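Example 3.2
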Amino acid sequence: MKLHSLTALGLLTVTLFASTSAMLIAADAPSIFDLKNISALWIAPPWDAKKRGPEERMQMLKELGLSKFAYNGGSAVDAEIEAAKKHGIEIAAWWYPARNPQIVESTKRHGIHPQFWVCGSRAIMATNDAERIEAEAARIRPIAEDAAALDCKVGLYNHREPWFEEQDHQIAIIERLKRDGITNVGIVFNFHHWRGSLAEFPALFKRMQPYLIAVNFNGMSADTTKYPPVSYIGSDESELAMIRVVEASGWHGPIGIIHERPTVDAAEGIKGNLQGLEWVQKELRQPGSGGPKPQEPKPAVSTNR
């Protein structure tokens, strides 16, 4: 099937799915677009052209009306937590590609409960899916045990390894861990690390919804099979249809908006995404009412985060 036909089919499927599901959602259900539900992602160095420190970063978030963020590392973990507490900002997640005693100890000492976002491992060698599931479960188990002791959850973050980026594989890992009594592992679904078929997205989202602990939005081109750059929400063709599925499903977990542009001021990057969210909300309510799409200040920077 040609790409434009597949895209058209996907949009039709998404629309039908959303129309049916919307009737099942209570009129007074909280909106996933509420600023209190939004986390800013990857706004710390090296992804901020202004190279803000913890104090400046938290002040920036307050000025933007946000109260959550996901921290992508660095050695000053305690300084980050202390600045966040001072300004009333919640650290919603740690970027956690491998076990990190410093993060574990700091999380425990300060009594916070962020999610631990774990990506795939390129070091695992397996000849079939069953072997890979066992190996990934063994890798993630001690991380999950560390997190459980802190009353935290672990999110499987679709990134760094193609097999791990498949949500059905992540579900299989989670179910394998449940057999060992590990129940604090879920899925963090990143739009811009997904390369599936738009036509299949409603069914995929339904499968992974029971496991979801966070969803991170991004601009998505019509050809979702290509690895997209970090783009403003609302700037491309496909994320509106994908967000329609998320909203119509009734899922109301946390949403992340991604900055991750090393040559752009993080405040401007977050503002652009918030404007994109406003555009999306208008278009969801009345197609064509959003006005011009948000425009990137310069070509998006493709990264490996």
